[in-house]
């Protein structure tokens, strides 16, 4: 095997979204809105997905815009972690 195939790995997914809940301990729910073209009608449709995000410092508030990154499973539903806070809620 060459060095290329050993070091080559799939990049972790990165998403941007808005915090919709921070009631849990060290966990926040981030809603990511995805715009997809409908296969038949070619109309743009908005789909949202809720991601459970690890928030080690418990400093996220509802309304914050955050960037999250895929990580190893941290619990049954939690597979994302906060990379950075893009914008604080006003």
Write the layout of secondary structure elements.
Elements: H1 3-7, E1 14-21, E2 27-37, E3 44-54, E4 65-70, E5 80-87
Parallel strand pairs: 3-5
Antiparallel strand pairs: 1-2, 1-4, 2-3, 4-5
Shape: globular
Trace the largest sheet across and list its strands: 1-2-3-5-4
Mean pLDDT: 92
The termini sit apart by 53 Å
- Taken as a percent bin, the fraction of beta residues is over 45%
Low-confidence parts lasting 5 or more residues at pLDDT below 50?
A: none
Task: Count up the helices.
Answer: 1
Radius of gyration (CA) equals: 16 Å
Number of domains: 1
Looking at the overall shape, the CATH architecture is Beta Barrel
Count of distinct strands: 5
Query: Based on helices, strands and strand pairing, what is the structural class?
Result: mainly beta
Name of the level-1 CATH class: Mainly Beta
The largest sheet is: 5 strands, mixed, barrel
Helix content: under 10%
Order of helices and strands: HEEEEE
Give me a quick take on this structure:
With 90 residues, the protein is mainly β. 6% of the residues lie in helices and 49% in strands.
What does this structure look like?
The protein has 90 residues and is mostly beta strands. The chain has a single domain (9-87), classed as OB fold (Dihydrolipoamide Acetyltransferase, E2P) (Beta Barrel), CATH 2.40.50.140. Helices cover 6% and strands 49% of the residues. It contains 1 helix and 5 strands. The chain has one helix at residues 3-7, and strands at residues 14-21, 27-37, 44-54, 65-70, 80-87. A 5-stranded mixed barrel has the order 1-2-3-5-4. A hairpin with a 5-residue loop joins strand 1 and strand 2. The chain is globular, with a radius of gyration of 16 Å. The N and C termini lie far apart (53 Å). 14% of the residues are buried. The model has no long low-confidence stretch (mean pLDDT 92).
